[in-house]
Every structure is written in C-alpha cells, then in structure tokens.
Design a protein that fits this description.
173 residues, seven-stranded mixed sheet, 5 helices, 34% helix
C-alpha cells in the first residue's frame, strides 16, 4: 500500500474513486456526516467541493492505494483565523471495508499527525461517534478524550448519537 498527499488536480482525478470509498464507508455504518443510502452523485459532488480547499491550502488530503485502487483517505482542515493557525482538525479518516484490519487506519492517522507537525501545527482535534470503532483507534493512538456531546449527529440510519471530542498535541509545543 502507498499513501500520497493529493494536490487539487490529483484530487479531482480521483473524485470518482473517493466517492466510492465514501459510499462504502456510509453503507458500512460509519458516521462521517451523511445518511444512508448515500447517492453516489452526492458523494462525487462532496469530494469535488473539496478541490478548492486543497488548492487554497485550507485542506490537506491523503489517499491510500492498494495497487491502483483507493482504499483509504484522511484529511486535515486548517483554520484561517490568525489565532488558530497552530491547530488543525483531523477529518474524514476512512478505510474501505474490505481493506480493514491491516493497520491502514492507524497508518493514515500517523501520516496526518506527522504532516501536521511538519507544518508547524502543535494541536490536532477531531470528533467521532461515541463507542464507534474509530473511537477505539484514536484512544489507542494516544489521543485525549475531551468530552462527549449528546445527540450531536445522526448516524447513517438517522438516529441521533453522541459524539466524543478528542485532541492530540503534536510537534514542538
């Protein structure tokens, strides 16, 4: 498997594959902001909207490939406010269901953490569905639980679920 950071052009080239990954993730029950069933055209539109953020440097996206196939992704969103340039939000860590169990999620997480530190980011944060497999990944990767918000987001099935907030210090403080 190889993981590469995508520039705006490469992201646009991979929109269809990334849309397939997003549909698979939602169909698998992961709460990543969409309700099931996720229409492929909606997934394509969502990824296409990310291209401008990548081009402007507000978003960094990595794709993991198994051969020619995209099997995972992770992103970092950088805030534009002067008082928050030391932090970033980890977004859309996704691994295709048939590629799970091989450490790909942990590898993508480490890639984003290392890139954040290299960019001078010292604090990362994220939110994830409480009691989800993703929460276990973040906890075991050294992220600190900040708290739980009840009924924060609907699951892909439309049921309101709590969300746990996490943070991690990276790089030099």
């Amino acid at each position: 498997m190889t993981t590469t950071r995508l520039d705006a052009g490469r992201l646009l080239d991979l929109v269809e594959e990334l849309a397939g990954l997003l549909v698979d993730t939602v169909d698998g029950g992961a709460s990543v902001g969409f309700l099931a069933p996720l229409d492929r055209a909606e997934a394509v539109a969502w990824w296409t909207e990310r291209v401008a953020g990548v081009a402007a440097g507000r978003l960094a996206v990595w794709a993991a490939h198994d051969g020619d196939r995209v099997v995972g992704t992770v992103g970092l969103e950088f805030p534009g406010k002067p008082n928050s340039r030391h932090r970033a939000e980890l977004v859309k860590l996704m691994v295709h269901r048939d590629a799970r169990g091989r450490g790909l999620g942990r590898g993508l997480l480490a890639t984003a953490e290392e890139a954040a530190a290299a960019a001078g980011v010292t604090l990362l944060h994220l939110d994830t569905e409480t009691d989800s497999p993703a929460e276990h990944l973040y906890r075991t990767a050294g992220w600190t639980r900040a708290g739980v918000i009840p009924d924060y987001a609907a699951s892909p099935a439309g049921v309101l679920r709590p969300t746990t907030l996490y943070y991690k210090r990276v790089g030099a403080g």
